[in-house]
Design a protein that fits this description.
By secondary structure, the protein is α+β, with helices and mostly antiparallel strands. It folds into four domains: 10-128, no CATH class; 133-173, no CATH class; 185-366, Jelly Rolls (Sandwich); 375-524, Galactose-binding lectin (Jelly Rolls). The chain is 13% helix and 30% strand. It is built from eight helices and 27 strands. It has helices at residues 10-21, 24-27, 30-44, 53-60, 74-91, 147-150, 320-324, 479-483, and strands spanning 99-102, 111-114, 185-186, 214-217, 224-225, 231-232, 238-245, 262-273, 279-285, 304-309, 312-318, 331-338, 345-354, 357-359, 361-366, 375-378, 384-385, 391-392, 398-405, 421-432, 438-444, 463-468, 471-477, 489-496, 503-512, 515-517, 519-524. The strands form seven sheets. Strands 3, 7, 8, 10, 11, 13 and 14 form a seven-stranded antiparallel beta sheet that branches. Strands 19, 20, 22, 23, 25 and 26 form a six-stranded antiparallel beta sheet that branches. The termini are far apart.
Length: 527
Amino acid sequence: MFEVKVAPSTGEARAELESVLASTLFVRSPRLSRLLEYLCTKYLEGATEEVKEYQIGVEVLGRPPSFDPAEDAAARVEAHRLRKRLREYYETEGRTHSLRIEVPLGHYAVVFQPMTAAPPPEEKEEEIQPPAAPIPPVVSGTATVNPPERWRFNNRIAGLALLAVVLLGATAVALGWHRVINPPIPAKAPAQGSASAPSLAKTLPSALAVQGSVRIACGRTKTHTDRGGEVWDADRDYEGGTPFEVHRQFIARAYDPRLFQTGRSGNFMYKIPLASGVYEMHLYFNESTYGPAMPAGGGEISRLFEVRANGKPILPRFDIYADAGGSNIADVRVFKDITPGPGQVLTLAFQGWTGVALVNAIELIPASPHHLNPIRMTAQDGFYTDSAGAVWKPDRYYNGGQSASHAVEVRGTRDPDLFTRERYGRFDYAIPVDKGTYRLSLYFAEEYFGPGGTLGGQPGTRVFDVSCNGVALLREFDLLKEAGLGQAVVKTFHGLTPNGQGTLLVSFSPIHDYASLYALEVIDESN
């Protein structure tokens, strides 16, 4: 496809790739390193025709199988960043090399050129905009904005295009938004007994393959692999109760809605064999029957039940509707210091008081005594491993806001790839934790406004408040005034405690334009 003046041998090509990956410019950018290695591997295998936007999104960037390049410009944005980084490398560390690696404009297949060849043309921002698409209808509940502000519904690059290419609302209809509300319907009961979980999916980072973890998708007859690649056993180790399934519908705050569409209800028990040790337990709930807009009506007190762990009440008089704040809202309750009882078995008893008890899923993860495992989340769709080896999970527990990708290189951080996607708008995170005190770190960067930004602007263009459980953490926070354009900002807060619903409810409230966040981290600091 491209004329190469000097065809390098396989050894020469591999040596050049290894040299680039070992450079300081690429060592500090794991995402670009993965992309470059993927593209060069396809080149060396003679399979460059297989390199498409979809494959890059799913195999390199961790997008789900439903990834649509027409709606998500992630592959184009990362290819743009890779071209920019390669140009920088060959102007600095690699300037004495005999070969250079290029990703030609408009293509994803790499080529190896002699350094004596003319350098590739510098890519213009306009060349990586997503293809034009009709503006979809505004989803119910989405705020109307002025035309200049509506550009923010795309990534920074799309913000330079005409208003006609705006992809408003694509995220809001993701994960199967169907406002079909139906009461639970019985599902075929699986055979009782234990089922061994299959090996983790290839998409799951090895750091997350926690030895001894237990995941049960209650009410399911088959194993379930969630959006992050974690495998959930079919329903097992139960006594009593009835499996149920609800029709597909939108469930707020749910990272994987399918986990909340089946469950077990009635008066029942789970007797789960566990290895010796300490675990943190996550119980997943969703109220899909009661509520003013639901067929059964009702609301608070329509369903009350108790949950006991090894005979000890952990959720007395539990009301899913009141706890979550409504129906069809994912509610996760977390408990630390869970240990097996007699016979190395954890016994969970669910007893109804008003209505029937239910649970959608059960998760047990090895942990340290008296402390929850760190919670790290990024606004990206895939997992991210930072320079210290810590794994950040995809965005979850949020309600409201939109997300967008950016091609701005963020300064002042060892992990600029952590700042490639933001959540913006008016939104909050209900982060489930147990009793104790916690440290919260919020990761910000102004990548849109300011001199040299997409729409320009001065300090005061973006201003917002941040609170946790109603207590102000940041008042009139102005990112541009704080650090300027393209500078990483991390704000850390200590001594935070959960609310009565067992969450750190972190709220982002716009004052002017939109609030913005790239990642957050929660660390258990309990004594």
